[in-house]
Amino acid sequence: MCLCRFVAPVRARDNMRSRDEAHRTGKQSAYKRGRYTVKDSRKVCVVLGDDASPEVVTPTVRLVEKMGLPITFSWAVTGEEAAKRYGDIFPAAAKRAIDGADCSIMGSTRSIRGVHGYLRWGKECYANIRPAKYFKGLKTSSRKPTGIDFVIVRENLEGLYPAGWEGDIAQLRPLGLVSEKLGTPLNTDEPGKFAVKITTEKGTRRICRSACKLAMDRKRKGGPGKLTVASKYNGLESDEMFRRIAEETCKEFPELSFNSLIIDNFCYQMILNPHQFDVVVMSNEYGDILADGASALVGGLGIVPNACIGDNYAYFGSVHGTAPDIVGLNVINPTAMILGAAMMLDYLKFADAAAQLESAVRQTYARGECLTRDQGGTASTTEFCDYVAKLSV
Ligand code: ATP
User: Which residue among 17, 208, 275, 326 is the one 20 to 30 A from 196 at the CA level?
Assistant: First the structure.
């Protein structure tokens, strides 16, 4: 399975070109002619998520349904709704629905427990792909947004967030830890908490390989073929290992160029000159934080999609969280989720449909008639989705 399928702007443009050609010549794409066979059919599990997430997930699924693809959606009941109905935030039926599908589309959840933890660690979706790509009409405070097009590839299962290896500092007392750099023992008498950061060679190698494959795919479509690794390699041994493995892995792809940046410097460079980046690989917590920052360069949290891909499963959604402050107002921007759905269609091998959906979103912004309030418009979530639907079906 090729990760690079998910973020391939030039190929998407190629697809758009062939679709425009099809419109001119009166030829319709295969799915519109109903040319699917049973082997084309796919199953997607829908996880609504918490707070305002269902307000973007439901209309996005409806939008995809209108495209007439051979996809069957199953709806997993999880979270508060499941707790109310079944007394369990992640009941067995929801797990079965996930396991029975080719992939899931997921709204952000408040907690990593339950469904999110299962999708991520249970299904080993280790590669978190977070593209920051500007297109015309997006409202951004960047001085020169045109041409910003890079992807953060975030290790999704290790680092500081394997969820739960934390505790009271006093628990570390029996280890008798002494700082190698300072030679001083850890003071375990001071009340406080510790958190464990795990960086395995295997986990690092596989995320770096995914990032290299993505950079190669983008290069084949006209991209610069550049891998950047961002880590705190000057301060942490684990981060130096991450950097070294990225460099070693990149050598297996001689067509790629490589550079390392200390994570602080990456943050600075990302704001000053984001155009220099192509594919940037980083560990879990850095990718979590910096992808939100990257989204600000291209229109904000409402825009940037999120794909979490493993060797046997994947789930798709948005970088943003549950947006609890705007729940129930029908104002949340569904763009990120719709673009996440486009990445999902690509994963499911409906490349034309993926390009069509992305193109419909781009056109919506280029026209600027029906935008949500975070983008300076007055449209509701529903109105925005209806507008995109008219352009995508
Ligand atoms: P998490 O820690 O779960 O990733 P977060 O801290 O990134 O969450 P969000 O839930 O993403 O927080 O929300 C941050 C702010 O951005 C909130 O004010 C929220 O309303 C706004 N926001 C997030 N997503 C959207 C969206 N799709 N459309 C409009 N506003 C959004």
Answer: 208
Q: What is the mean pLDDT of the chain?
A: 91
- Report whether 283 contacts 155 (CB < 8 A): yes
Q: Is the confidence at residue 4, as pLDDT, over 70?
A: no
CA distances from 177 to 85, 182, 183, 187, 356 (A): 48, 12, 10, 9, 56
Say how many C-beta atoms besides its own lie within 10 A of residue 87's C-beta: 8
Q: What is the pLDDT of residue 39?
A: 83
What domains sit in the chain, N to C, each tagged with a CATH number? 1-126+310-393 (3.40.718.10), 129-156+199-303 (3.40.718.10), 164-197 (no CATH)
Confidence of residue 23 (pLDDT cuts 50, 70, 90): very low
User: What average pLDDT does range 199-208 have in this prediction?
Assistant: 98
Query: What integer pLDDT is reported at residue 36 of this predicted model?
Result: 80
Query: Which 3 state secondary structure label does DSSP give 297?
Result: helix
Give the model's confidence band at 295: pLDDT under 50 very low, under 70 low, under 90 confident, else very high.
very high
Task: Give the Å distance between the CA of 327 and the centre of ligand 1.
Answer: 11
Q: Is residue 330 pLDDT above 50, yes or no? A: yes
The residue contributing the CA closest to ligand 1 atom 19 is 323
Between vectors from CA 1 to CA 6 and to CA 350, what angle results, nearest 5°? Answer: 50
> Whole-prediction pTM value?
0.89
- CA–centroid distance, residue 326 to ligand 1 (Å): 9
Q: Which residues line ligand 1 (CB under 6 A)?
A: 108, 292, 301-302, 320-323, 325-326, 332-333, 336, 374
State how far the Cα of 48 lies from the Cα of 68, in Å rounded to an integer: 21
Apex CA 130: angle with CA 361 and CA 302, to 5°? 45
Which protein residue's CA is at the shortest distance from atom 26 of ligand 1? 302
Q: Minimum mean pLDDT among 139-148, 162-171, 175-184, 250-259: which range?
A: 162-171
Stretch (H or E) spanning 279:
strand 279-282
Contact 345, 354 (CB under 8 A): yes
Q: How far apart are the first and last CA of the chain?
A: 28
| Per-residue confidence (pLDDT) for residue 112, from 0 to 100 | 87
Mutation to probe ligand 1, out of 106, 288, 301 (largest number of atoms < 8 A from CB)? 301
